[in-house]
Sequence to fold (511 residues):
Amino acid sequence: MERKLRLTRPGLTLVALGLMGASLDASAQDEARFITLASTTSTQNSGLFDAILPRFREASDIEVRVVAVGTGQAFEIARRGDADSLLVHDTEGEERFVAEGYATERADVMYNDFVIVGPSDDPAGISDAQSIEEALSDIAEAEAPFASRGDDSGTNRAELRLWEAAGVEPGGEWYRELGSGMGPTLNTAAGMDAYAMSDRATWVAFDNRQNLALLFAGDEALFNQYGSLLIDPERHPHLKHDLAEQWHDWLLSEQGQAAIADFEVKGQQLFFPNAAK
Amino acid sequence: MPDDANAFQTALALILGLDPDLIGIVTLSLKVSFTAVLIAALIALPLGAAIALWRFPGRGVLIVALNALMGLPPVVAGLAVYLLLSRAGPLGELGLLFTPGAMVIAQVILVLPIIAALTRQQVEELHGDYREQLTSMGVSRARRIPTLLWDARFGLATVLLAGFGRASAEVGAVMIVGGNIDGVTRVMTTAIVLETSKGDLPLALGLGIVLLALVALVNAAAHLVGETARRRVG
Fold:
């Protein structure tokens, strides 16, 4: 009885070590030629990376591994030295990040805009509002359900700034902070017939709209700028700064900007390149 | 519901189409969870048996702690491993964050208490039956561990399957420490979360059905092996 077991045990250990080796090996293989990019869910969920990363890889032979999280969390990941590069959309936060010394460089890459979506019968009547301030005031006055990200993401930060500009302190029964990403927030908004603010890319690529419709867009205040940041190599010497710099430069290059412009979902361009020439 | 029918069709199409992306995701899911269960078992089986056999101060506390850890929220385990493996953390030098290795570590933490606690319980019961016999044969306690584990093997196989179920079903931990990187750390559960957030609910549900089928397959295989072995033992 015991004898049998002694024979099987080293076997098991070998299998375990082999498997562990195999699973760890995959990540070690091309260690030198990949960077980790912390970015937002909007860029990932819309499919932008699926479209542009192969083109970058072709040009540079560098693989970009994307960790898509909210902008707040992306900053935190980079601050801890867990990402080589950042592509986010909170210009104020990005500039603070540079000022605090975590990043050496920040550059405009592309933009799109935020849109307000809501139940297609538009109970708060925002579709004929003249400005985003008016639209938000209408929602607050009607106390129509509004689903907020509530997750310190770039979209959430922009939304809070817009409420402030509208002179409304959002709160109460109708204002629902979900604490989730853009997609889950749209899923929830669709489920409870609520208004929500979304970046246009996520909205256009989103499939579960149910009764939701795009109700308000076009105000200049809804401008949504994406920026690329290079993390300071002195603070985190292990980072692949050289490779990250190639990525950063490529995004701003003619090739990179063209790749962004070429990306379409359902026949619509979702990101508009605007790197400084 | 048209959506549900759609999900089954999607699941079927995914399986039959042998989509290479899906195969990669499935392979990684299995690899990570199997590795985690194996490592956890190598530690937790002897540990659980040892706790069953020895009496020592603090034993009750240890048992309660292990039982409580069976309910450890995956997201908490993930967060702890994230802080540990982050470059700013104590094990940051290893560079394991956002790799399958990090996912294995997180799942080991989730699975280990389940295997240890349930092994402890099974071995303790079994030991109750065999104690006199083993004592009369003069078998030392350390030597009893492999004997009892071997004798409890059919019950313990179910314990390992429970551990595998926990590992393959959780998403909170692997999402944080793996980062759901396409082609590198994307597993079934994180892919389901991603498709849900894209609003592609039929695909998300389809992936869910594939995952369920996979876990069922693993369980069926274990059951078959167990039955064959049991029959041979008589």
Summary: The first helix of chain A runs from residue 2 to 28. The domain at 113-222 of chain A is CATH 3.40.190.10 (D-Maltodextrin-Binding Protein; domain 2). Chain A has eleven helices and twelve strands. Chain A has two domains: 34-111+224-273, 113-222.
